[in-house]
Inverse folding.
C-alpha cells in the first residue's frame, strides 16, 4: 500500500486533534450537570462582579472610613479627606471630638481626641496630606520647582554577597540639598520634600523617606498612591540598571509586592485546570477505557494533543483575561503561557504514571507546590538580582512595573519551561500505548519505561542526555536561588556538589533504563562504555545551550560562574578547556553506566564516585578561573 | 485478509506468544481458543496493531498491522469494553464514526441500522446507566461504525447471559455472511465449534493445533466406530445393546473385520455409528500434552 504524502498526514492529524479536542470539551461539559454548571456560573459572575467593583473603586479598602475627621467643606483639608479611603469627613464640631470624630480641623488648628484611635487617625491624616501634596507637586509643569532635589539610585554589583541585599548598594545623589528634614506636620500645610543636607543617601533604597515618624505608613501609602488604583508599585525604571526615582518619597525597598501579588493571580486557574486534566488522562487508563482510541486511526500524539488543547486554550484565555484585568500586556501572557504548558505537561506525565486517583492527587499537589515555588520565589528578587529571571513570573513583574523585557531575557526565562514541557509531553506520549498505559507499575518504573520508550539504539542515549538539559538547568538554577542566601564560602562548594550530582543522574538514568530493558542482553563492559560515552557527549553538546545564560549576565554573579563556568561556556579561559568537560562527562557517565549495567544497587553505588569526580573537577575549574 | 507470520511477543524473559503463524481468508470466521494466559489476547492485539511484536509480522487487509492506515479496515472489540459512561450510545458512536472519517450522513444511517440490527434500545441514555449486555452491543456497534472488512473480536460473548450470547454469536455469523472476515477468541469451545470455520488452539503461547474442526478432529482426536451386529462377534469385545450387540473399534479396517466375523457367526452388521470427540476433549488432550514443558520450548 502507498503511504499518504506528509501533507495529507499532517492535515489528517490536525483534523484528528480537533475532533478529539471537541470531544474532550463535550465530555468535560457533560460531566457537570446543568444545575452545578449554573451555580458555578453564578459564582463566577459574582466573583467577577465583586472583583470588577473592587478594581473599579481602587482596590479593596478594608479600612474604608475607619477614621472620622471633622473638617469644613470649604477647608483645603476637605479634599484630602475625601481622597483618602480610610478617612471620612464630618462636620467640624468640637463637641463631637472623641465621640463621633477623632480629629477636628478648625481655623487651621488641629484638635485630637485623647485615644489611641485618634492618634492613628492623625497619623493617617498626616500621610494623606503628604500624598495629596506630592500629587499636587507631581502635577506641576515645572518639575525642578516641585522637586529641587533629584535622587538617582544606582545599585552596585554585590559580588554575590548576600549581605548586599540589605545594603542595597550605594546610593548617590545629584542636585542640591536644601537641608533640613521635611516638615511632616499637617498643620503647616506646606510640606516640602528634600533630601539630606549632605548630598548623600546613606541607606540606599531601603529608606528614602523623609525621616518622619510615620515613615512606614508613608512608604506603603506612597507605593499605592503612585501606581494608580491597582497598587502596582512604580519604580521609575529598572533599579538594576539605575534610574531616576523621581522623588525621595518614591524610594522604597526593591520588593515588588503589589506586582507579585497580582502576578500570583495567574497561578490560580492553573491549579484548578490541572485537576480535571489529570483526571481525564487517568480516566483513559482506568479499566482500559482508552484502548479503543488507541485502535482508532489516530496517533497517540494526536490523542494527547487533542485532549490537552482545550485545557491549554482555557489557561491561555484566562491568562489573557487576567492580564487585561490587572494591567498586564502581551509580555505577561507570553510569560505565563509556558508556565501553563509545563503545568499541563507535568500533570500529563503524572496522569500517565499514577496508578490511582490518590496517587494523581499527590502528583498534582507536588506539581503545584514545586512549580509555584519555582516561579514565585525567584520573582521576589526581580529588582535585586538577575537570578530572578529563572522564573517567567519575573517577566510578568517587569511587565506590570512597566519595565521592558528583552528577547534574550524572555528566552532565558521561558526556554527551560518550553523545552521542559515538550520533553515531558514526549516522554508521556512514549508510554501512551497499550503495553504501558494499563500496567500497574510503580511510578519510578513507569518513569524508566517512559525513558526506555524513547531508546531506539545507542545514539538515543546522547539525545536523551541533551533533552535532560532543561531539567538540569531548572534544578541548578533553583539550587542557585536556594543557596543564594548562604555565605559564598559555603554555598559555592555545596552548589558544585549539587550540580555534579544532578548532572550525573541526568546523564545516566536513561542508560540505566536502557540496561533494564533494551540492553538487557548486552550487559558488557564495552556496551557500558559506549553508552556512557555517548550519553556524556550528548550532555556536553546540550550543555552548550546554556550559553543563553550569557545574554542575561548570570555568570556575572559568583554563583552563576560557579554553576556554569565549568561547562566551558564562561570566559575565554574556559573555552580553552573545551575538551576537558567532554572527557569529564564521558568518563563519569561511563562510571555510572558500568554500575547501571550490573544492577540497580551497583548503579546507585557508581553514582557516588562519578559525582565526586565531577564535583572535584568543577571545584578545580572554579579555583583555576578564580 | 489476515496473515500472521511467526508472531512472537516476549515481556522481559517471559514469552507470551511463541511464533504464531496462521492466515484468515476473506469471509471466514477464524477462532482462537485456549486457556487463560495462552496468548490469545496478545495475538489478537498484535494483529490489531495495539501491541508491537517482538518478532514476526502480521498483515491485515494488505496493510502491515502497525500501519495506522490499517485501522481504517479494522473493527476491534476488546474483551472488556469499558465505555465513556458519561456519553450516550448515539454520541459515543458518532464520535468514533467521526474519528474514522465517516461522513456524517453515512454515519447516522449506519449507526441507526446497526443499532436496529442489534435491537439496542435506550440510545440516548448515558452508557453508565445501561446493562452489561447493552454495553456489549454498543461496543460491537462501535466496531462496525467504519464498516470494516476485518473484525477482531476478543471474547465477544464474555460475561453475557445465554440469550445475549446466542444473539451475539448469531450476529457474528451474519457478519460473516455479509462478507466480513472475523477473527475471534473464546474460552467457550462450544461457541467456537458452532461458529468458526477454522480454529487454532493455543496453549502456553503457542499454536498447538490449527485447521477446520473436522480436520483437527481427524488429526488430533480419536474417532471411534461403534458396530452394531445381530449376533455376538467372536474374537471381539462385544457388549449387549438391547436386542443387538455393539463392538467398538478404532478404524474402518477393523469395522470390516467385525463385519466378516459377524457373517461367520451367522449374523450381520445392522448399524455403524461414529463417536467423534468434541473440540473440548481434543483441547484438553493437547493442553495436557504440553503442560509439563517450559513455555515456548515445546
Amino acid at each position: 500500500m502507498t503511504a499518504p504524502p506528509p501533507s495529507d498526514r499532517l492535515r489528517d492529524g490536525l483534523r484528528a486533534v480537533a475532533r478529539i479536542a471537541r470531544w474532550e470539551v463535550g465530555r468535560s461539559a457533560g460531566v457537570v450537570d446543568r444545575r452545578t454548571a449554573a451555580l458555578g456560573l453564578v459564582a463566577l459572575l459574582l466573583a467577577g462582579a465583586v472583583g470588577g467593583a473592587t478594581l473599579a473603586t481602587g482596590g479593596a479598602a478594608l479600612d474604608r472610613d475607619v477614621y472620622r475627621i471633622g473638617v469644613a467643606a470649604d477647608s483645603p483639608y476637605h479634599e484630602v479627606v475625601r481622597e483618602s479611603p480610610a478617612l471620612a469627613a464630618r462636620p467640624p464640631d468640637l463637641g463631637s471630638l472623641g465621640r463621633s470624630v477623632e480629629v477636628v480641623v478648625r481655623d487651621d488648628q488641629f484638635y485630637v481626641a485623647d485615644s489611641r484611635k485618634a492618634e492613628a487617625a492623625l497619623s493617617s491624616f498626616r500621610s494623606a496630606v503628604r500624598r495629596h501634596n506630592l500629587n499636587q507637586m507631581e502635577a506641576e509643569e515645572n518639575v525642578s520647582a516641585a522637586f529641587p532635589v533629584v535622587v538617582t539610585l544606582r545599585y552596585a554589583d554585590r559580588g554575590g554577597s548576600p549581605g548586599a541585599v540589605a545594603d542595597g548598594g550605594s546610593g548617590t545623589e545629584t542636585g542640591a540639598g536644601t537641608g533640613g528634614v521635611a516638615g511632616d506636620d499637617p498643620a503647616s500645610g506646606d510640606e516640602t520634600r528634600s533630601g539630606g543636607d549632605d548630598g548623600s543617601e546613606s541607606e540606599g533604597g531601603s529608606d528614602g523617606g523623609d525621616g518622619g515618624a510615620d515613615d512606614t505608613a508613608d512608604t506603603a501609602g506612597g507605593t499605592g498612591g503612585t501606581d494608580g488604583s491597582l497598587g502596582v508599585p512604580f519604580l521609575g525604571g529598572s533599579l538594576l540598571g539605575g534610574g531616576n526615582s523621581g522623588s525621595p518619597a518614591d524610594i522604597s525597598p526593591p520588593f515588588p509586592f503589589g506586582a507579585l501579588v497580582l502576578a500570583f493571580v495567574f497561578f490560580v486557574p492553573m491549579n484548578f485546570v490541572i485537576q480535571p486534566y489529570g483526571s481525564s488522562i487517568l480516566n483513559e487508563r482506568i479499566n482500559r477505557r482508552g484502548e479503543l482510541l488507541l485502535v482508532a486511526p489516530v496517533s497517540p500524539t494526536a490523542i494527547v494533543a487533542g485532549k490537552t488543547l482545550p485545557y491549554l486554550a482555557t489557561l491561555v484565555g484566562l491568562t489573557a483575561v487576567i492580564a487585561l484585568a490587572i494591567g498586564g500586556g502581551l509580555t505577561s501572557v507570553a510569560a505565563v503561557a509556558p508556565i501553563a504548558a509545563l503545568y499541563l505537561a507535568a500533570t500529563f506525565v503524572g496522569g500517565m504514571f499514577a496508578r490511582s486517583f490518590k496517587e494523581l492527587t499527590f502528583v498534582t499537589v507536588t506539581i503545584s507546590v514545586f512549580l509555584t515555588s519555582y516561579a514565585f520565589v525567584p520573582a521576589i528578587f526581580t529588582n535585586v538580582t538577575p537570578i530572578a529571571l529563572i522564573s517567567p513570573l519575573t517577566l510578568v513583574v517587569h511587565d506590570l512595573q512597566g519595565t521592558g523585557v528583552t528577547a534574550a531575557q524572555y528566552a532565558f526565562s521561558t526556554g527551560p519551561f518550553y523545552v521542559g514541557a515538550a520533553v515531558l509531553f514526549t516522554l508521556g506520549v512514549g508510554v501512551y500505548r497499550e503495553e504501558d498505559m494499563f500496567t500497574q507499575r510503580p511510578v519510578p518504573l513507569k518513569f524508566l519505561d517512559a525513558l526506555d520508550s524513547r531508546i531506539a539504539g545507542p545514539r538515543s542515549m546522547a539525545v536523551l542526555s541533551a533533552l535532560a538539559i532543561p531539567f538540569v538547568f531548572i534544578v541548578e538554577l533553583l539550587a542557585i536561588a536556594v543557596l543564594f542566601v548562604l555565605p559564598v564560602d559555603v554555598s559555592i562548594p555545596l552548589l558544585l556538589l549539587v550540580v555534579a550530582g544532578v548532572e550525573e543522574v541526568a546523564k545516566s538514568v536513561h542508560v540505566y533504563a536502557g540496561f533494564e530493558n533494551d540492553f538487557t542482553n548486552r550487559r558488557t563492559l564495552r556496551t557500558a562504555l559506549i553508552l556512557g560515552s555517548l550519553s556524556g557527549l550528548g550532555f556536553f553538546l546540550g550543555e552548550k545551550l546554556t550559553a543563553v545564560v550569557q545574554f542575561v549576565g548570570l555568570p556575572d554573579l559568583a554563583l552563576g560562574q560557579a554553576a556554569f563556568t565549568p561547562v566551558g561556556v564562561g570566559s575565554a579561559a574556559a573555552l580553552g578547556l573545551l575538551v576537558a568537560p567532554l572527557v569529564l562527562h564521558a568518563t563519569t557517565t561511563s562510571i555510572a553506566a558500568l554500575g547501571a549495567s550490573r544492577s540497580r544497587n551497583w548503579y546507585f553505588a557508581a553514582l557516588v564516585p562519578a559525582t565526586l569526580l565531577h564535583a572535584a573537577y568543577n571545584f578545580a575549574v572554579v579555583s583555576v578561573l578564580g | 485478509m489476515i496473515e500472521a507470520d511467526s508472531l512472537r511477543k516476549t515481556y522481559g524473559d517471559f514469552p507470551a506468544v511463541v511464533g504464531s503463524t496462521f492466515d484468515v481468508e476473506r469471509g471466514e470466521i477464524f477462532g482462537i481458543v485456549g486457556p487463560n494466559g495462552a496468548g490469545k489476547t496478545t495475538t489478537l492485539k498484535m494483529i490489531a496493531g495495539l501491541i508491537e511484536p517482538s518478532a514476526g509480522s502480521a498483515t491485515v487487509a494488505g496493510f502491515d498491522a502497525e500501519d495506522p492506515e490499517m485501522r481504517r479496515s479494522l473493527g476491534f472489540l476488546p474483551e472488556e469494553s469499558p465505555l465513556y459512561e458519561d456519553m450516550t450510545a448515539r454520541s459515543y458512536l458518532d464520535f468514533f464514526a467521526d474519528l474514522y472519517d465517516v461522513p456524517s450522513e453515512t454515519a447516522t444511517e449506519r449507526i441507526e441500522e446497526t443499532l436496529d440490527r442489534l435491537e439496542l434500545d435506550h440510545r440516548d441514555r448515558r452508557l453508565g446507566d445501561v446493562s452489561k449486555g447493552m454495553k456489549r452491543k454498543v461496543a460491537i456497534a462501535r466496531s462496525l461504525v467504519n464498516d470494516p472488512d476485518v473484525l477482531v473480536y476478543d471474547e465477544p460473548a464474555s460475561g453475557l447471559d445465554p440469550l445475549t450470547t446466542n444473539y451475539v454469536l448469531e450476529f457474528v455469523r451474519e457478519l460473516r455472511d455479509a462478507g466480513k472476515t472475523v477473527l475471534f477468541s473464546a474460552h467457550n469451545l462450544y461457541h467456537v465449534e458452532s461458529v468458526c470455520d477454522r480454529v487454532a488452539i493455543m496453549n502456553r503461547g503457542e499454536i498447538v493445533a490449527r485447521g477446520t474442526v473436522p480436520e483437527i478432529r481427524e488429526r488430533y482426536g480419536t474417532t471411534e466406530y461403534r458396530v452394531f451386529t445381530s449376533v455376538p462377534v467372536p474374537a471381539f469385545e462385544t457388549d449387549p445393546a438391547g436386542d443387538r450387540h455393539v463392538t467398538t473399534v478404532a478404524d474402518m479396517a477393523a469395522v470390516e473385520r467385525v463385519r466378516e466375523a459377524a457373517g461367520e457367526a451367522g449374523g450381520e452388521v445392522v448399524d455403524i455409528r461414529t463417536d467423534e470427540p468434541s473440540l473440548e476433549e481434543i483441547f484438553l488432550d493437547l493442553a495436557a500434552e504440553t503442560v509439563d514443558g517450559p513455555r515456548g520450548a515445546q
About this structure: Chain B has a mean pLDDT of 84. The longest strand of chain B covers residues 14-24. Chain B touches chain A through 32 residues (CB under 8 Å).
